[in-house]
Amino acid sequence: MTTALNAVERVLSVPDEQTRWDTYAPRYEQLLGADLTAEQVPAWLAEWSALDAEVGQAGNKLATHADLHTDDEAVQARYAKFLEEVSPQAQRAEQALTEKLLAVPGFAPAPDFALNYRRFRDAAALFREANVELGVTHEAQMNRHGVITGNQKVILNGEERTVPQAKQQMDSPDRAEREEAWRALAASNQGVAPALDALMLELIGTRQQLAWNADLPGYRDFIWRRLDRVDYTPQDCRAFHEAVREEVVPLAAEIMGGIAARLGLDRVRPWDYNRNNLLDPEGRASLKPFKTGAELEDLAQTAFEGLDGELAARFRSMRDGLLDLQSRPGKMTHAYCQYFPVQNEPFVLMNVVGTSEDVRVLFHEVGHAFHGFLSGQAQPLVWNRWSPIEFVEIPSMAMEFLTLDHLGHVFSPAELARYREKQLQGVVAFLPWAAQMDAFQHWLYAEAGENVTIADLDAKWLELDRTFHPFVNWDGLDESVRAKGWQYYHIFRAPFYYIEYAMCYLAAVGIWRGARQNPAQALSNYKASLRLGSTVPVPELYRAAGVDFRFDREHIRGLMAFLKEQLA
């Protein structure tokens, strides 16, 4: 454990000079002062890309280090200093460079840069000087969420636990134990709720002001442009919410009703429903295929070896400081994949406790890592790496499915059937949650009004939860607990980023459906689409992966029928 943590600390170390603006300023000034003709643009762009990668990598490493040490004031202060001193200056310089590029007479971008050239133009139009400093405030506010929740403790059975450790008991086949864990988690969440309420009001005000500074009526308009959502509209999202309500919620209710009946439960209570890991209908304990983060790495390595040699080699390279998997106090409780563009290295942070759900999440996050590796290898310009957010979850979610046939060393045939069933059930259970999260944010940032209160947020969440999870029975329980369901990571730290998970889960199911017929072709399509990075529009990325960019009702109905067939 100590050796692994030392490797992580080594990877995340950032020299002091890389935390100061004066380290980068001369290179920005040189780029800004260059005489630039259309013929000179490609070489100039390469220099700018390299500088952008260095600044971005320093910020990403400092942010990740802060998430690993939410209880270390010095670490938090170092990241805050970077946000205050480097980020605003870099934003201003990036805007100036963008304007310089757009003003070059006669420049026609190469096909692999045309899409990002258009994005540069649109981003330049959205830029406002007033939003530079306000953006620093916004980042600092969002970072406070990690501090609040990273230091959150749960008292369970008289012992202090981390949130992931307490959630593990929610998977117990013993209903009394589940309820005990649920109530302990609820008490812990209620303890931090006032701080998160206050933070959310600050964030809403800041986000409204960002929009107004950009001469836009509301934050949804602002973020829609900021996220470059050009392939679908808010009305399409509304239609998705409705499609999920009509086509998916009944199937989720049917699945949970069947599980409850087989377990002899009179109703499904909150402690009976974990969308990430539905109850076993035979009352068996959750699968626990490993004990330590190192064991999880080993079993994943073997799975990747069976799937694809190139991907296995990529994962092996991550095992020296690019994985931090174990849950521990002071560590932010979410899981994510970070990226260090200079070395083209992804970094995965998790909080594993030994469950099969941890196995799925690792494959998910490493799917992101493969995206970083392959797009970074294929695309020299930093802006051409990764992809638009409507595609970025496909590499991760598809990897959850593509590894299903390579886990014979982890599970017995019967256990693998259980794991596979959980994976398929998880898609059905996830879609109502995704629709609820997206619908809540559409309401919050386009309908609620600028004087929205916490009571309004609580009431709206209750309304949506009753719509998308009507099969969970809260009779006799304190619904103030239910009302705080909006206090979730993405609401605070990734606003309006959630429907993409649903889009990509639907696509991942499509990729798996193709893999059932031709696994080699499906894997080849998968890797080819990742290498395209951000050089082609979203619908073309989907086609390269072998699926359609669709999330309409007819499409969802067809995929639900396929999942129901597979579950049967």
UniProtKB/TrEMBL annotation:
<dbReference type="InterPro" id="IPR045090">
    <property type="entry name" value="Pept_M3A_M3B"/>
</dbReference>
<dbReference type="InterPro" id="IPR001567">
    <property type="entry name" value="Pept_M3A_M3B_dom"/>
</dbReference>
<dbReference type="Pfam" id="PF01432">
    <property type="entry name" value="Peptidase_M3"/>
</dbReference>
<keyword id="KW-0862">Zinc</keyword>
<protein>
    <recommendedName>
        <fullName>Peptidase M3A/M3B catalytic domain-containing protein</fullName>
    </recommendedName>
</protein>
<feature type="domain" description="Peptidase M3A/M3B catalytic">
    <location>
        <begin position="170"/>
        <end position="557"/>
    </location>
</feature>
<keyword id="KW-0378">Hydrolase</keyword>
<keyword id="KW-0479">Metal-binding</keyword>
<keyword id="KW-0482">Metalloprotease</keyword>
<comment type="similarity">
    <text>Belongs to the peptidase M3 family.</text>
</comment>
<keyword id="KW-0645">Protease</keyword>
